[in-house]
Amino acid sequence: xxxxxxxxxxxxxxxxxxxxxxxxxxxxxxxxxxxxxxxxxxxxxxxxxxxxxxxxxxxxxxxxxxxxxxxxxxxxxxxxxxxxxxxxxxxxxxxxxxxxxxxxxxxxxxxxxxxxxxxxxxxxxxxxxxxxxxxxxxxxxxxxxxxxxxxxxxxxxxxxxxxxxxxxxxxxxxxxxxxxxxxxxxxxxxxxxxxxxxxxxxxxxxxxxxxxxxxxxxxxxxxxxxxxxxxxxxxxxxxxxxxxxxxxxxxxxxxxxxxxxxxxxxxxxxx
Length: 271
Ligand SMILES: Cc1cc2nc3c(=O)[nH]c(=O)nc-3n(C[C@H](O)[C@H](O)[C@H](O)COP(=O)(O)OP(=O)(O)OC[C@H]3O[C@@H](n4cnc5c(N)ncnc54)[C@H](O)[C@@H]3O)c2cc1C
Fold this sequence. Notes:
This protein has helices spanning 4-10, 90-93, 133-138, 142-147, 166-175, 180-186, 204-209, 212-216, 237-249, and strands at 15-24, 29-35, 47-51, 63-67, 76-82, 101-104, 122-128, 150-157, 187-193, 229-236, 263-269. By secondary structure, the chain is of the alpha/beta class. It has 2 domains: 4-104, Elongation Factor Tu (Ef-tu), domain 3 (Beta Barrel); 114-269, Rossmann fold, CATH 3.40.50. A 6-stranded antiparallel sheet has the order 4-3-6-1-2-5. Strands 9-8-7-10-11 form a 5-stranded parallel sheet. Strand 1 and strand 2 form a beta hairpin. Helix 5 (166-175) packs across helix 6 (180-186). The longest helix has 13 residues, at 237-249. The structure holds flavin-adenine dinucleotide. Flavin-adenine dinucleotide is lined by residues 47, 62, 64-67, 80-82, 84, 87-91, 129-130, 133, 266, 268-271.
């Protein structure tokens, strides 16, 4: 039996929470939920430090940044994670089971929040791989649908099996008590796969450059319009760099918490 008070005493800087459920999507991806500390507040789209307690007398715990995948009002906290075979944290984290302890930092932060964007009509959420995580939070928050007429979730992966949460975007969210009705009218899910046949193929920046994305979404061929389009990006450096360049080309400018703008980004991982 894990001794939570002992772990808490050894790690006073962190919350000690308990794993509730684990879901393995592929041998590279998994999700888990855990208990939420009563005093923990965050804004949909923010990230927090997560880690596992070290062995007694061992080194300090390894902590890593993780986007919270649940919306700000959720009872449980959800995360969507990579499994890096020799990764200091995820080589261990991928083996967690319900009941196990998890350390969590006390201060959430981040720029992928609705408050960092100026008002507009369409909100594009561009992600690759686990970069989808913050948008699982933002697009399950009714605030997104109140602020924007359309919310477009773009998810780029290498293989079809990596389109985690596809059932959520294509079915479950429409049944959601809180956002179901808004999602039915306003949410568009736009998945794309780069290394296998799929109904849509290609890198996100290429789909923009060729005009295919605009045609698919029924948008003007002239592309993004700084008067109405807002965006968030999360995932690989290459996607973020190329999409940011494209958005700048259309006249959109980067925002932050202190100075809201047309788009915001989070560099979650290299490669
Ligand atoms: C702001 C922020 C938010 C993040 N949110 C998430 C999240 O929600 N889910 C998540 O899985 N990771 C997220 N990460 C990455 C995370 O912090 C860790 O890097 C990851 O969990 C691997 O940890 P590790 O100790 O096993 O390996 P590390 O030593 O941290 O990473 C080893 C290598 O694996 C690759 N890598 C790391 N993370 C990923 C990833 N997510 N996808 C593809 N390749 C990766 C990189 O090339 C890295 O150099 C986020 C990072 C930042 C900065």
